[in-house]
Design goal:
single chain; 347 residues; alpha/beta; six-stranded parallel β-sheet; three-stranded antiparallel β-sheet; 39% helix; elongated
Length: 347
């Protein structure tokens, strides 16, 4: 049985007007009522023990009271409006059959301060809704930058995705690659990472070459298994439709009719990155993912191939660059706080 979530926001008395303070007077509180007609959706909308409402309360500093199909939100005017928008968008997601979890709520709260919220969630922006359909799930953006990245994944030949862990750089690229492989628009999916040694030499690790490098490639397997049934992944790997290999295995090849992803690209040298990018072939797409602030190249004095490539290639036709920040972290909220704390170290 689940534990009842705890409210940290202080309840506010109702009846305040939605106006700003003047002079020495503090800004007055706002009170909004929202009615939902589909009562069957209310349990999923509010969550077990009203967990979804409590999460919104605690993140936005408002107080929410649910009575039947009516929700009353009280607090500072801007936060009340954001809480209302988040609830309405969650309701829309439920009506379209999407699952609502704490991650979806956190994402909507993060986006509720951005003008793109309506278009991202409902597809009201120009063009079709932004989403990626795979065999196992339909993926929608969880931040404005993810929405821009997903657009680039369908429009540019080479995409550089830069930013901290947890922003969806590699996951969304793998999802798009799987969708294109399933649709037949590409014939192969090639996933690669540099096998940077962390205190151990690969030659001294037990097993054959595959067993030596597989641990470095495990995050790519994890993303694949999340988008495609495991038996299909194994079958396509066996047939060569999906290839997962260290970047050194790319030398001397031309990668045509392929969706090619390079992960942890900040750990490539300039020579490796140039070699990788020049593998590009007809009817292909390349995505290069990495965090320029997390370089583990041995020696420490060699410039990251990722940073150098972006410096040289940004603005070139057919090449897109997406820069994520800690605000785009879509894992558990504590991941964003951890990344933010480390980024502030020594600055």
């Amino acid at each position: 049985m689940g534990r009842k979530p705890q409210r940290t926001a202080t309840p506010i008395r109702s009846g305040y007007a939605s106006t700003s303070g003047t002079g020495d007077q503090p800004p007055q509180r706002a009170r909004i009522e929202v009615n939902f007609s589909e009562e069957a959706m209310l349990h999923a909308l509010f969550g077990e023990f009203d967990a979804n409402l409590v999460l919104i309360e605690n993140r936005l500093g408002v107080f929410i009271a649910a009575r039947g199909n009516k929700v009353v939100i009280e607090g500072m005017p801007d936060e009340v409006a954001r809480a209302r928008d988040v609830l309405l968008k969650l309701h829309e997601k439920l009506l379209t059959g999407e699952e609502v979890d704490s991650g979806a709520i956190e994402a909507l709260i993060a986006m509720s301060n951005e003008p793109t919220l309506d278009g991202i969630i409902t597809g009201e922006a120009k063009g079709p809704p932004i989403m990626i359909r795979t065999r196992r799930k339909t993926i929608v953006p969880r931040s404005a930058m993810q929405a821009e990245y997903m657009r680039q994944l369908t429009s540019n030949d080479v995409i550089f995705a830069l930013g901290p862990a947890g922003t969806g750089k590699t996951y969304l690229a793998v999802a798009q690659a799987v969708a294109q492989l399933i649709s037949g628009s590409v014939q192969r999916l090639i996933l690669s990472r540099p096998a940077v040694e962390a205190g151990e030499k690969l030659g001294f690790l037990p097993g054959d070459m595959k067993e030596k490098v597989d641990p470095y490639l495990r995050p790519l397997y994890d993303a694949l298994f999340d988008c495609m049934p495991p038996e299909q992944v194994e079958r396509r790997i066996a047939s060569g439709e999906i290839e997962i290999a260290p970047i050194a295995f790319m030398r001397g090849r031309t990668l045509a009719d392929a969706f090619v992803i390079l992960d942890e690209a900040q750990n490539t040298t300039r020579e490796q990155m140039k070699m990788f990018l020049t593998r590009f072939g007809q009817n292909s797409r390349m995505v290069v993912c990495g965090d320029p602030r997390q370089v583990d190249i041995p020696g420490g004095d060699r410039m990251s191939g990722l940073a150098y490539a972006v410096e040289r290639l940004e603005g070139v036709e057919g090449i897109g660059v997406t820069r994520f920040t800690v605000a785009d972290v879509v894992r558990h909220p504590i991941v964003g706080r951890i990344v933010e704390a480390y980024e502030g170290e020594g600055n």
